[in-house]
Amino acid sequence: MSALVKKEIRLLLPSFGFACTLAFAGAFFPNNPDSILNSITYIFSCLLCPAVAAMLALSSFGGEVSAGTFSNLLAQPVSRSKIWETKIVLLSVALVAVTGLWVVAFLISVFHSGQNHDINGWLGLFSVVVTFGLVIFSGGLWTVLLLRQVAAAFWFMVLVPGVLVAIVAGFFGGESDEFVTGMIASVLGAYSLAGFFFARWLFFRAQDLQWSGGTIVLPEMRGRARRKSAGGLRVWRPHAALWWKEIQLHQSQFIFAGVLLVLHLGVLAARTFGNFRKNSDTEFILEIFWGLWLVLPLLTGAAAVAEERKLGTQAAQLCLPLRRRTQFAVKFRVALLLSVLFGAVMPLVLEGRRILPKFYLLPGGITHSQMTLSQASAAQSFFWYGLEMLNLLSPVLLLAGVALAIGAIAFYASTLARNTLQALAPSVLGFFVFAFLLWNAHAPELLFRSHESELSLSLWHGPLIYFTGIPAFFLALAALAYWNSQQPAPGLAAGRRNLLVFAGMLLAIIVVTSATYHRAWEKLTPFEPAHGAAKLSRTSPPALENDFNYFTVRLPDGRIWANAYGLNFNGANPLAFVLGDARLESLGQNTFYTGSNWVSLGRNWRGELTGLKTDGTLWVSSKPASFRWRDGGGWDVSQPGDLVRFGDETNWSSQVWHGYSMILVKTDGTLWRWGLKEWNHKSWKDWPGLHAFTPQQIGTQTNWAEVFLSDNHPRIRKTDGSIWALWTDSNSQWPTEILEPGFEIQRQPYLEGDTWRNTTDIWSGMHYRLGIRADGTFRLCADEELVKKSNSYELTAVDYQFGTASNWLAVAGRGEKVVTLKNDGTLWCWNFPHNYWNELNRARYEPAMIQTQPVRLGTHADWLAVTEAPGGIVSLAADGSLWYWPLDSAQRFASDYGNGNYWDENNNRYLEPLLDISRKPQRLGKVLGEDAAQ
Q1: DSSP tally for the chain: helices H, then strands E
Q2: Where are the domains of the chain?
Q3: 659-680 confidence digits (pLDDT tens)
Q4: Given this model, what pLDDT does residue 334 score?
Q5: CB atoms < 10 A from the CB of 590, how many?
């Protein structure tokens, strides 16, 4: 192999390696829409690979120009035809290889995903790839040979074909899409052929003759020139000189900005006065033309240090009698300021708000309007007003941040390069990697989650990573850029050192973010305070129930204690949401109810209480609660009246809420409705209370045994053991009964069979029903199965046992975590894996679910009862105290209990708190003690 060929291979190898890696990356990752790796692969293949391929075309002669070896190349004792043939052949082979790898990777991805494409689709893809390859092949040759500047050549290589496409599309705008596409391909083909022969003509006539017409610099201001000519005492302004020198270094970017400004004004005129077909290619090109301004920050940053090395002025600059960090600070600031000016200010001035991204730091739910005057102090009001103003400026800040990030990353790449061309490819790659990691950093498990794997990291969720990672990243970037800029010629050793620093920084960010998100400082404090002396017996335990956050404790002597709780995480307190402070707070209904012979206490949607006593009497609130919407947001709720007896009947046996009515069963087996038959808006505003209604019998059957709540859903049991839901699903395969017009029930076979102490539903990718059987075993009693008749999923009965223990008393919880109570008074948490498999692979998931091992919850062993609560469970201790255990993640709290206040429409997901919720139990109050005297 000749030295000329070896030299040419070394010249093309860096860009060729980048392009091949990006082109073939998609072949190594599965086509999984839930994984960010899949999205990154497509972006790398469709955006980064063509961009690096264009830089590969520029490298053939641009590398010679940037390294200053073009003159030596012309002086070699080799014919120019030989040099031309060598460069053209190797560049053609490199571009064909990159194109071939890209097509192969695309085919592998298509076949792996099972997509089908017709012959027209393949022909269209082939024509686009070939046309693009020819355009960048000829453009990379003639632009460099004509201009002898890589940055200028890059602009002409991009703009000239773009202008030709816009002209052709505009001229033939009324023709069909196929005709326009054919004309564009023809024009670009002719352009490529002309560009190739023009480049050959330029090369064979290239001369090594330096410019003799003086130095081309930006014009100086007249005042400054007059002061120089006037003589007198010279005023030294070293910092101003540094700033001016840096601006002069980027004078080519100002020239390109001027040219781009003229072109942009022409585009605005064409959009205003032109007549283009809706959704045409021409309209699309004109609409996105402003995106070319984002190339200027890339070129500005890439030239900042690398251009000094190319010009040979870096060493002299380091010898100046001025602090090196001052020189670096001026250079860095100029690059960033110009990046914002070119990439954000100019597009905004020309395009206005049209180009602003639809992005806001916070959705509409977290605003100052949520804080009423009675809730917010002056400092809080100032904070929320400031946050709201920052939210309104978010689109502008994001656009400026994008330009700033492009310039900063390109500046860093420039500190490792010897010329601008070497810095361009790493700059583009670095920015896209940074952007995609940043976009998905809120959920790190998305990098690894797969339908075929259970691997799901829970390091953190939400925006905390941006507060720790972005400052750390840019501090490391600035520190490394400073160190690199002091090296005359950084090599592989400097590259390895940079990689080690970034790896250490990434590890530190992961550790700090994870520790902060999971509140590591709580590990240094006691997990659970001590309990008092036992006042309740385990042999005759009380019954603890939750009816829509209305907790009742029925003591063995028939007394009932009740209290309503609200979750401060549901939008009433935005600061609690931001800090992940999920707490149940009393709503002021903590009381024992008169009498000692209560069977049950219920509450309907209006906060109205109803009760049954052992003598079969029915009781109801003397007046319902009232609801008033506050001006600042949220509801003001008054307390319902005291319980008073309703009617004189003594044969009521069970009750359950059903919307604005109560469903009751009598001892004679009849079913009754008490309240409204149908809900309407007027009833919400003018609700008279249940005492204004008379119970009405439903149907004529007399075989009803009881009504009850199961997982907050009302159900009815017949005397034959069948269980029926008070709603119907048209897709269900189970039978329905019409008890009367407008009142249908549907059978729930999966609830029948064994006697269960209590049950709960969980969601772990699919619905599952768990329960404690009468024999004390903890079992999976129902799961979702695909009903082919309706093509929907429905719970069906199964029977799997968790572990071998048979001393369980109760289970409570939702989501993917439940808590079980043992007869020794201990609590145990079961964290079930998430089911990422579909119905066909259900058999692979449930064995793993059955093998889940519980973890001891807390340190005490005096618990008597548990029930579910928003985002967790509530447990009752032997001393009469109630404790709330948060179990769900902050992400699930926001989605399940945010009431829509934290829905981020831009990212199609719920906004997540900075910190995870505290896992420490929260003391809610005490059933016995001071309250017992009420």
Answers
A1: 26, 34
A2: 1-206, 597-752
A3: 778 899 999 999 999 988 776 5
A4: 93
A5: 18
